[in-house]
Specification:
alpha/beta; 7 helices; single chain; 226 residues; four-stranded antiparallel sheet; ABC transporter domain-containing protein; transport; P-loop_NTPase; nucleotide-binding; MacB-like_ATP-bd; Rossmann fold
């Protein structure tokens, strides 16, 4: 097993719009240990979401290396990155990302339908109970509250038993009580399943409750205590 669940070394990502170049990440480096819950916080435009999308393999940095569980992902082609992401990375976005035309049960099965794997029904049942979504199977997302939908997204992300769970502002679209509940559930999942979690958030009070907090500024890690 690799010493680190995540290791990022001097990555750089820029965006070009007409004649203007914007540096989103520059010389960004840090590492996360297996089973660690790390929060990433910083001002708007500091590079938080770009960093998470690089970790997920959704975008590729121009420079540097990203290693997930001992596997370097930045040099993979798009198909290999997609396969790796489906098998090893769970993602929770701010805006639920559920397919509105599918039932909750169908949304939960979606990762397995895409990658052709069999779901672990016992494990999924355990997740549903832990996240209190047992009675939602035949409902559609629009029939569920925001908090319920986010719990379904967390269950779907964890159902494939990923090596790494990435959460991009997972409480940003919720009221304060629902946000607290979702964060508590992420913490419970991390401890129960020994899950490695990297969570981007603007909520300092939640960020401080992580095992470790990374502070971003101008595309780099300003503060990364070990």
């Amino acid at each position: 097993m690799s010493e680190y669940a995540v290791k990022v070394s001097e990555i750089r990502k820029t965006y070009t719009d007409s004649a203007t170049e914007t540096v989103a990440l520059q010389d960004c480096s840090f590492a996360v240990k297996p089973g660690e819950f790390v929060s990433v916080i910083g001002k708007s435009g500091s590079g938080k979401s770009t960093l998470l999308h690089c970790l997920a393999g959704l975008i590729t940095p121009e420079k540097g290396t990203i290693t997930i569980g001992g596997t370097m992902i930045q040099d993979m082609n798009e198909d290999r990155r997609s396969d790796f992401r489906l098998s090893h990375i769970g993602i929770v976005f701010q805006f639920y990302s559920l397919v509105q035309e599918l039932t909750i049960e169908e949304n939960l099965r979606l990762p397995f339908d895409v990658n052709g794997r069999q779901s672990d029904h016992t494990f999924l049942k355990k997740l549903k109970k832990l996240l209190e979504i047992e009675g939602l199977d035949h409902k559609y997302p629009a029939q569920c509250s925001g908090g319920q939908q986010q719990r379904v997204v967390i269950a779907r992300a964890l159902a494939v038993k990923p090596d790494l769970l990435l959460a991009d502002e997972p409480t940003g679209n919720l009221d304060s009580e629902s946000a607290r509940q979702v964060f508590t559930l992420l913490r419970q999942c991390q401890r129960l399943f020994r899950q490695t979690v990297v969570m981007v958030t603007h909520d300092l009070s939640l960020a401080k409750q992580a095992d470790r907090m990374l502070v971003m500024e101008d595309g780099g890690i300003l503060h990364a205590p070990v």
